[in-house]
Design a protein that fits this description.
A hairpin with a 7-residue loop joins β4 and β5. The radius of gyration is 13 Å and the shape is globular. It is built from one helix and six strands, in the order αββββββ. By secondary structure, it is mainly β. Helix content is 8%, strand content 36%. The protein has one domain. It has a six-stranded mixed beta sheet, covered by helices on one side. 18% of the residues are buried. The longest helix is centred in the first third of the chain and has 8 residues.
Length: 99
């Protein structure tokens, strides 16, 4: 999960908002992932993801840049010192992702 959050937060290095994470059910598991380009000159984006045993419990993932292993789901976005990444729950599989 920590690595996925780092992928979502890399845009902040360029003073842009973090990438949203998309969550959707695939069979018995949930997929949580983000689209990112490895090179700014490439046209295609890659989908980086992790499998979860259940539905994401909140609408944001809280990430501490100072403590890179500290990630947690959160309903609030007002704690100082954290980066918050939006979790978008999809009703169906993402149309651009194939498993």
């Amino acid at each position: 999960m920590g690595s996925l959050v780092k992928v979502g937060a890399y845009k902040m290095l360029f003073e842009e908002p973090p990438l949203p994470l998309f969550g959707f059910k695939s069979g018995a598991t949930w997929i949580l992932g983000a689209f990112a380009r490895i090179d700014d000159y490439e046209e295609a984006s890659l989908f980086f993801y992790t499998r979860m045993s259940g539905e994401p419990p909140a609408g944001f993932v809280r990430y501490s840049p100072a403590k890179t292993t500290e990630t947690a789901f959160s309903k609030k976005t007002d704690e100082h010192g954290f980066v918050y990444i939006k979790v978008v729950k999809l009703a169906e599989k993402h149309p651009l992702v194939q498993f």
